Amino acid sequence: MLNAGWYENLGLGEIYGKVQGAERLSLEDGEKLLACPDVVAVGALAHHVRTRLHGQAAYYVLNQHINYSNICINGCLFCAFGRVKGESQAFQLSTEDLLNKLKEREKEPITEIHIVGGCHPDLPFSYYESILREVKAFRPSAVIKAFTAVEIAHFAKQTGKSTREILLRLKSVGLDMLPGGGAEVFSPRVRSLLCPHKLSGDQWLAVSREAHELGIRSNATMLYGHVETPRERLEHLDALRRLQDETGGFVCFIPLPFQPANTRVGKVEPTTGVEDLKNMAVCRLMLDNIPHIKAYWVMLTVKLAQVALHFGADDLDGTVVEEKIGHMAGAESEQALTRPELERLIRDAGFQPVERNSFFEKVAD
Ligand code: V47
Q1: Which range of residues forms the domain containing residue 102?
Q2: Is the pTM of this model over 0.90?
């Protein structure tokens, strides 16, 4: 039970009342929460909401990440993963390479294959279709979560087809869900500074809306801790919340703390642990209609992701195994976690581990 007096003293009495009454928070409420010096008070509000939604459950997934290529025409300043064609460390997997990666983990009961790359200048659309076909044939029961809204729009531009047609074609060969990447911060100001060649925030939202209308659910992210203001973070969350009111298609939200190493953003200090926890809590509180909030251990570190389960998060993501986007930008986390490790982290935090699939359906024991 939360103590009303605690929140009155912090100037958060009204917000406390709204959280108790499950009322929507305004952007101004969000600003007050981000500015509150008491991270535990903000976290306790988020924990209250997280517990109302999910009880003692904390989720994880047995998944495999595969990056088909890091060759990208966008050149986003925050990205240490992307390369131009021909540059050292540029790579592109053939369908056979991709199959070999699947075979390496053939014996594991993986339920999700997460596939993303860059905006490649000239891979034909048939390549993306054949990747999905091969993965579906190899792991028919796994969910294929592939291609961000940015990649979908890129395929449409390259082929001269509509994003709707691209989504339908990919769905027909095995696409089940879109991952949440590429959202960054929707603010045109931030995008003009960090990723001027990338799809706009409004277009990212439009592709997600279209996917949801076609029955393809998706995730959403926010890359924070670079040049954005608190207000821009909150406007990003509000835009997601408004789209979710329309479609209900977002499954999970993932806040991504910016990893500055090997990027071209300039002098930016990495986020602190308290900032990450407060941000996690505010995301839980603002996104009242997105069911799940992921503490992505790759970017947060394993230890902070575990603590974040008490600050609004209900999911730790999964085994991952080969992660490039965060690690090429200096992420200090492990490359992989095992099921016993994930379960231990969750139990030790006082929660009940639940293995889920990409849609957060419980996987049978
Ligand atoms: O879109 C790029 C971000 C995202 C950096 O949907 C960076 O379940 C931090 O979206 N520091 C890819 N972040 C990761 C992603 C994701 C991960 C796990 C699960 C899901 C899901 C989605 O990583 C990119 C970009 O926003 N990113 N560079 C960086 N230097």
Answers
A1: 56-355
A2: yes
